[in-house]
């Protein structure tokens, strides 16, 4: 299952660990602060060729293969990102979004 991670701050490492434990394929990363992506990649020793974005809407639109979106942003953004993700992920009848 291909997924994208939105938000690469302190809680994101837990999302990465969960995705590894469940055999998910990371398709893209997004954070408004690009250095956060680099820090996360260094902590979890992920490949650095994963596409990176600062705009989650652009990321979702550029990756029609996504089946799941993990949201690791400030909780105040969860609803907005979740609704956009549900409306724009087209791989399945019911897109999967978790916060």
Shape, per Cα inertia axes:
globular
> Radius of gyration, rounded?
12 Å
- From the helix content, strand content and strand pairing, which structural class follows? alpha/beta
Q: Strand-and-helix sequence, N→C?
A: EHEHEHEHE
Amount of helix: 25-40%
Give the biggest sheet: 5 strands, parallel
The proportion of residues in beta strands is 15-25%
Describe the model.
The chain has 4 helices and 5 strands. With 99 residues, the chain is an alpha/beta fold. The protein is globular.
Helix and strand topology:
Elements (H helix, E strand, L loop, with lengths): L1 E5 L5 H10 L3 E6 L3 H11 L7 E2 L2 H7 L5 E4 L6 H11 L7 E3 L1
Parallel strand pairs: 1-2, 1-4, 2-3, 4-5
Helix pairs in contact: 3-4
Looking at this protein, list some descriptive labels:
single chain, five-stranded parallel β-sheet, 99 residues, alpha/beta, 39% helix
Write a brief structural summary.
With 99 residues, the protein is α/β, with parallel strands linked by helices.
């Amino acid at each position: 299952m291909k997924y994208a991670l939105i938000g690469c701050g302190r809680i994101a490492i837990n999302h990465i660990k969960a995705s590894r434990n469940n055999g998910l394929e990371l398709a893209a990363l997004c954070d408004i602060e690009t250095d956060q992506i680099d820090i996360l990649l260094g902590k979890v020793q992920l490949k650095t060729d994963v596409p990176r974005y600062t705009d989650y809407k652009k990321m979702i639109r550029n990756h029609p293969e996504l089946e799941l979106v993990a949201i690791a942003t400030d909780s105040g953004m969860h609803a907005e990102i979740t609704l956009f993700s549900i409306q724009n992920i087209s791989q399945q009848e019911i897109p999967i979004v978790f916060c």
